Amino acid sequence: MSGSLLLNYARLLKAERINDRGMGGKFVIIALPCLLFILALAVNQKSRHYYVSTALPFFALHVALAVQWLWPRAARQVWLRAGLLAIGAGLLIESGVGIARHHAIAQATKPYEAVLQPIAAHIPPGTRVLLSQPYWLGLADRETRSVVLALDLVDSRLFPPNSGQLRRTMPQAFDLIQPDFVLIEEQFIVGYTNPTNPEIEAGMRAFAEVLRERCPTRVDTWVEADYGTIHLFRCP
Predict the structure, then answer these.
(1) Which of 107, 145, 187, 199 is most exposed, with minimal Cβ within 10 Å?
(2) What is the pTM for the complete model shown?
(3) How far apart are the first and last CA of the chain?
(4) Buried b / exposed e across 155-170, counting CB within 10 Å, b at 16+?
């Protein structure tokens, strides 16, 4: 789908280069990337790069067409062509170094399947698991719920006084979710602090307390270099 969108967008760009009278198309060409960046700036900083990445292919098309337009016009200006070649070479080198670095990181990272297989062996299919978000994909045949759901149910910021919605306590959140297992990293249930977000810190501390009460049986523990110490608890 994304490839088809880029192809159609490239055709529109090409058509606009040929037909200078198509003002509607020009508006789309200019507006689409601008709107994507406005959306990126409107969301919280943590997720901004996800939205920006959707706009980058469109900007790459713009850059490619700009070079295509400029290159023949710079035939008599050697310095301009040399500058374009230098910029292109720099971009290729930077991209190559980045790809090599990320490839090395990927090679040094333990495969996701190898992390989840021993964990999944302790969780029967069809059971409900309250878990940290990285693990749901490896437990697709289980009924998974994110720990974030429990935190949202007790977050006062999501339940304004006049909203008419009921804010739960953490024990009530557990009653509502009814997990059979809880899969979570130790860093979130032992000495967790979050000075920039005291509401989340309070929620995680309440989560840890209720976890000890409702799910006292620790099934197993895994120490992973990439994920930290992971605990699996069974809830009676």
Answers:
(1) 107
(2) 0.68
(3) 45
(4) beeeeeeeeeeebbeb
